[in-house]
Each structure stands twice: as C-alpha cells, then as structure tokens.
Amino acid sequence: MELMTIQVTDGTEMQVHVARPEGAPKAGIIVIQEAFGVTDYIERMTARFTAAGYLAVAPEVFHRSAEVGAAFSYDDFEQVKPHMAALTLEGQEVDLKASYDLLVREGAPKGKIAALGFCMGGRASFLANATLPLACAVSFYGGGISEQLLDRVDALSGPQLFFWGGKDAHILVEKTRAVADALANASKPFVDVTFSEADHAFARDVGAHYHKTSANEAWALADAFLADHLA
Fold it and tell me: Are 60 and 69 in contact (CB under 8 A)?
C-alpha cells in the first residue's frame, strides 16, 4: 500500500492510501472509509481490487479534524463522533473530486471509475455518484442517505448497488425503502439487497457483527456489479 498526500481544492491536504495493480489499470475505485478511519480492514478491502486490475484509492476523509493516519478502535464509537460531526457535504464533495482526479492522473480510464463505501462511506459513495461522472457506485449499509441525500437522486451518474442488514437497528426498513422508492421514481438504475440475518457492519470481518455468509454473497455481487459496469 502506497501513501500519497494530495491537495484538495479547499486548500487542505489529504493523505490517500493507494493500491496499484500490475500493469496499466483497467478501472479505478474510490474506497470510502467507515467511521473508524482507514483501518487495516479498509486497507485490505482497497488492496483486494488490484486482483481485478483496478487502481484503488482510500482517502482519509477525517483529514480536517484528525491527525494524518488516524484510525480508531471499533470498541469506542464516542471517539469518532467529533470527526463525523466535522464532516460537511461540501468537504466530502471536494475530497471525492480530489480522489477521482488522482485516479485519472495515475492512469485509471475516465469512463471506468466507481465508488464503494461502508457505513458513512456508503452514504459518501452515493454522494460521489451524484457528484462525479462515475460508471457505478456501491453502498454497504449507507446510513443517512434517506435523510440527507434524496434530493441528489436526479444527479446520479451511474447505477447504484445497495446492501442493507435486515437486523440493522440503525437503518430501519422504512429508510431503505425510501431510498429505493426515490430511485425508482426517478427512473435511476439500482440494485437493492437486504440480508435478513445481517446486522450493521456485517461485511467487516472484525467485530461481533460480521456475518460471513452475507458478506461473501455481498462481495460476490459487488464484484460482478463492478465488473459489468467497469468493463
């Protein structure tokens, strides 16, 4: 994993974790962290895309409020609350644009760039799809989409894949249904998947909420979705 520091258009600097494939990239992926930073898990999920020939980058989106390289314990959510509260849509938009521009500079074809994120990063992947000319985007349990971003539905660039946990007490079914209804009403292409036995963060293989079967099936679908839309 390579670390790069890039300039963001609001005058800030952001560290980005970069995973390179062998040879020229077939496509590019922006991998967006969950609330705990660019942890070992996020780095591993970023690096996994190199096997498909993708150039993948994971930006540190807490760069305005946390130290460079900050990663937080999964057991203490209180420590990340100030950093989450410091996030703004405007700040995330310029961070995502800087990440997209980095992928293009490093050789990812412009028409073959996607976003994929977890939890707050799942919400950010939706924002990226509504902000950037993406081929597609993937959202793992992206809380807050129904509350914050449904006014961006008409701006979605590519198809969106959603994964939800049926036992997720943080994202209730009425919220996931509101997202699906909004995309359907706007005639936007999407795939909406709920794993009935899964909780929030079911794909993270660290912690009590990991649900191996749901995670395996979600990744199989995510990989196929990306392969189809980045071909």
Answer: yes
Model confidence, pTM: 0.98
Domain positions in the chain are 2-229
Nearest to 63 by CA among 83, 45, 81: 83
CB atoms within 10 A of CB 118: 27
Number of Cβ within a 10 Å radius of residue 144: 17
CA distance 151 to 173: 19
pLDDT single digits (tens) 154-205: 999 999 999 999 999 999 999 999 999 999 999 999 999 999 999 999 999 9
Under CATH, which number does the domain 2-229 receive? 3.40.50.1820
DSSP 47: H
As given in the structure block, the two tokens for residue 51 are 């096997």
Interhelix angle 89-105/120-131, rounded to 10 degrees, is: 70
DSSP type of residue 194 = E
pLDDT tens track for 99-109: 999 999 999 99
